[in-house]
Amino acid sequence: MKRTPHSWATRRKMSEARKKAWADPEVRARMSEASKKALADPEVRARMSEARKKALADPEVRARMSEASKKALADPEVRARMSVNIKRAKRGCVVEVPKWVPSALVDDYLDVAGSHGEEAAASFVRQLKREMEARQ
Questions:
Q1: The total number of structural domains that make up the chain
Q2: Which of 6, 12, 41, 70 is 20 to 30 A away from residue 76, measured at CA?
Q3: In 3D, which of 135, 136, 103, 91 has the Cα closest to residue 125?
Q4: Using the 8-state DSSP alphabet, how is residue 119 labeled?
Q5: pLDDT tens by residue, 36-95
């Protein structure tokens, strides 16, 4: 389908509106709850699973996904976030690691957060960051 300048302008407007909405914590919370509720329904999960299987059976879809993954993984920030998420998953951790935590200190943050809570972990990592910066 060929896009007209009007359709591109509409897409851009909709994209900007979506980004603005997702920046609002209340909107994110509502969407999260709606998603959790939908995913709790076995019929919805089954439909989503079938749609995913059908899409992944298409070589064009797989090729686009592969290219998108390669492009994302080339970005050091994306790789760092993925590393954090993998570490969290391996530990069965429900703690969200703040973006300001350096990748070198993620393990320390997760260890302390798991045993003493997120506030203690943040305090501990801040202290470690100060010590690291003082040595440089």
A1: 2
A2: 12
A3: 103
A4: H
A5: 998 899 999 999 999 999 999 999 999 999 999 899 889 888 888 788 777 777 777 777
